[in-house]
Amino acid sequence: MRKPYLAGNWKMNLELKSALGLAGALREHVGSRDDVDVAVAPPYVYLSEVIVALEGSPIRVGAQDVCDRTQGAYTGEVSAVMLKDIGCDFSVIGHSERRRLYGEGDELCNTKVHRALEAGLEIILCVGETLDEREEGKTETVVRRQLSEGMAGVPGDQLDKITLAYEPVWAIGTGRTATPEQAGEVHRYLRGMWAGLYNEQSATRLRIQYGGSVKPSNAKELLAIPDIDGALVGGAALTPEQFQPIIDSAS
Ligand code: PEP
């Protein structure tokens, strides 16, 4: 049985005071419950303080991205080793905003995956098609390429460190949500593909989050789909009033 995994991607939002307020509220709400995994991905500059604020809580803290290099003259970048050093649990890799706005391709995502795993971080690897790709019937081709190229060379003993997030680009921040059936279909496809790339056992353990305008009003029906194992939430993860009911929808 896969434990539901709900992660909030704060993107470039909040300020220190509101970030700590949100972390504190979630800490209180989640308490010590262990029927769901809850995570937050604050902006880099607030990571350390959020990590301290959540110390002793089961809520996991991760970065929204990671550099593909280990160290050196890469102005403005943050390495996986640095993230691990300050206590991060994971990094999001391949978010569609990185792919679309900053031109990140599958090869770069794959290098980031390797840097993160080498540093001992877990990963949420995002895949998803654009609206044009969906309308052209290319959804499976696109997510297949993103998954196989993003995971290239990852050894079998690291597979449990990976969570996938299926995030149709047309549903992110747009208010348009994939229907539970649309999302479930792609989740099933990804799990089947994982079984082919690796093995059935690992595919059964793999958690696949759905992301794209998840909110309190639609979380329950999305999370009820057998292959949807949680959610990666953007806008609705920015306030306890919205994120907490999403967390509660999973149990
Ligand atoms: C995201 O940032 O990964 C996301 C899914 O955003 P939103 O929930 O706002 O669509």
Structure description:
It is a single chain. By secondary structure, the chain is an alpha/beta fold. The chain has a single domain, classed as Alpha-Beta Barrel (TIM Barrel), CATH 3.20.20.70. It has helices at residues 16-30, 47-53, 80-85, 96-101, 106-118, 131-135, 139-150, 180-197, 200-205, 216-223, 240-249, and strands at 5-9, 37-41, 60-63, 90-93, 122-127, 162-166, 207-210, 230-233. β1 (5-9), α1 and β2 form a beta-alpha-beta unit. α5 runs parallel beside α7 (139-150), α7 (139-150) packs across α8 (180-197) and α10 (216-223) packs parallel to α11. The longest helix has 18 residues, at 180-197. The radius of gyration is 17 Å and the shape is globular. The mean pLDDT is 97. Bound molecules: phosphoenolpyruvate (PEP). Phosphoenolpyruvate binds next to β8.
What is the topological layout?
Elements: E1 5-9, H1 16-30, E2 37-41, H2 47-53, E3 60-63, H3 80-85, E4 90-93, H4 96-101, H5 106-118, E5 122-127, H6 131-135, H7 139-150, E6 162-166, H8 180-197, H9 200-205, E7 207-210, H10 216-223, E8 230-233, H11 240-249
Parallel strand pairs: 1-2, 1-8, 2-3, 3-4, 4-5, 5-6, 6-7
Helix pairs in contact: 5-7, 7-8, 10-11
Bound molecules: phosphoenolpyruvate.
Assign the CATH class: Alpha Beta
- How many domains would you count in the coordinates? 1
N-end to C-end Cα span: 13 Å
- Major β-sheet profile: 8 strands, parallel
| Architecture (CATH level 2) name | Alpha-Beta Barrel
The ligands found in this model are: phosphoenolpyruvate
CATH superfamily: Aldolase class I
